Amino acid sequence: MLTTANHQLTTQKHLFSFPEGIHYLNCATRAPFSRAVEQAGHELLTRQANPFGLRPDDFFSDAIRVRTLFSQLINNRNDESLDPDRIAVVPSVSYGMAVVALNLSRKPGIQAGQRIVLLGDEFPSDVYAWGRVCSELGLTITTVRMPDNFPKGPTWNERLLEAIDADTALVIVPPVHWMYGIRFDLEAIGQRAREVGAWFVIDGTQAIGALPFDLAKIQPDAVVCAGYKWLMGPYSLGLAYYGPAFDEGIPLEEGWMNRLDSNQFHRLMDYQPEYRPKAYRYNVGEHSHFLQMPMLEVSLTQLIDWQPDRIQAYTQTLMADAWPILEKLGCQLEPENGSVGRSHHLVGVWLPAHSDPMTVQQALQAKNVSVSARARVLRIAPHVYNTGEDVDALVDVLTAVLK
C-alpha cells in the first residue's frame, strides 16, 4: 500500500502537452499521455526500427517491471513482498472477465440455480461475459438497480449486500460506477462474498490509479483493469490480478511465453507442459508489447509518485466551488459520503429534466470543454493536469446553457 506524502499535489499541467484553450475533464473516457509517456513512445518507436541485439530475456523484462509496479499500486503482496506473479497482462477488460467466466465451472460448490450478482447500468464488458456461462451452468443473473432518490450510494450499497446470499456464485463490482461516480464499499462487499462462498471480482478500470485501492484489505478473487484510463497508459493493454482461486486454472490461450523456461529460445522445441507460476498462464499472447509496455511502465511510475490519495485530494479541491453553482442551476449530484458516496476523480452530474444531455455536451465541446454524456448524466472526470481555468470554462458553459 502506498504511503501518503505530507505535501499536497499542485497542478501537473506542465507535464502534459495540452494546447492552450483545451479544457479536458474527460479522463474517464481516455487519459492523455504525459510528456514522459509520449517521449518514451517516440524513443521506443525509433528503437524498434533496428531490433539487432534483442535478447530472449527482453521479451519478458518490461512486463516483469510493469507487473511489479501495478502490484505496488494495489498492494498486491505475498507476506511482506510484492507478488507480481499474480498479475497477468491482458488486452482488455473483456479478456480478463472471459478468464473468470471460463474458470467459473471449477469453483468449488458451483451448481445450477445459483446466481451472478451485477450492478445496474454496468459497463457492457462486465455484463456480456456471463451470458454463455449462465446457459452452460444453469446460472441466473441478479441485477441490483440504482435507487431513484438521493443520496443513492448508501442504499445502493445496502441493496447490493442484501443480494449476496448463499445462492450467490459470483459478484462483480467496480470501486466506482463508470457512469455515476458512486463508490462501493469493497471491503464490506468482499467480506460478505467470503461469508457465503462467492467469488468476488472487481473491474478497477474507472478507479485504480486515481482512488486508493488496497488488495490486502479487500481480498478479491480477481481484479481486471484497462490501462488507458486512470492508469494513464496506452490503449489495448491492461493488467489483471488473479488470486489463489485461479491457480491451476484454464487459460484462454496456450501461449508459449507462459510456459516454464520459455526464455530459453534454444529449447523451445522441447515442448513444456508446465506453466509459469500463479497468474502467468493468463497472459495474452505476445504480451511483450515492446512499444506499449515501457510506456505503461512510465505512467505507473508517475502515478506511484503522485499517489492516488493525493489525486483524490487534488480533484476534490479543484472542483469544490463548482458543485454548489451547478446545484443552483438545477443539477443533482451524489454527496460525499466516504466509501459509499461520490468519488472526486469521476463525478456524475444529473442534469435538469428540461435539458438534453447531448445538446449540453455539444455546447461544451464548442467551447473546447471535454466531458461525457451518459444517459441523463454528465460525467465529469478531472485529473492533476486540470486547473481552475478548466473548471471555470465548464461552469460558464453550463450556466449559459442551463439557465
Automatic annotation (TrEMBL):
SUPFAM superfamilies (UniProt xref): PLP-dependent transferases
Residue intervals of the Aminotransferase class V domain: 66-394
Keyword terms of this UniProt record: Aminotransferase, Pyridoxal phosphate, Transferase
Keyword Magnesium: no
Domain of life, source organism: Bacteria
Presence of keyword Transferase: yes
Record-linked InterPro entries: Aminotrans_V_dom, PyrdxlP-dep_Trfase, PyrdxlP-dep_Trfase_major, PyrdxlP-dep_Trfase_small
Matching Pfam families: Aminotran_5
GO molecular function: transaminase activity
Name of the protein in its database record: Aminotransferase class V-fold PLP-dependent enzyme
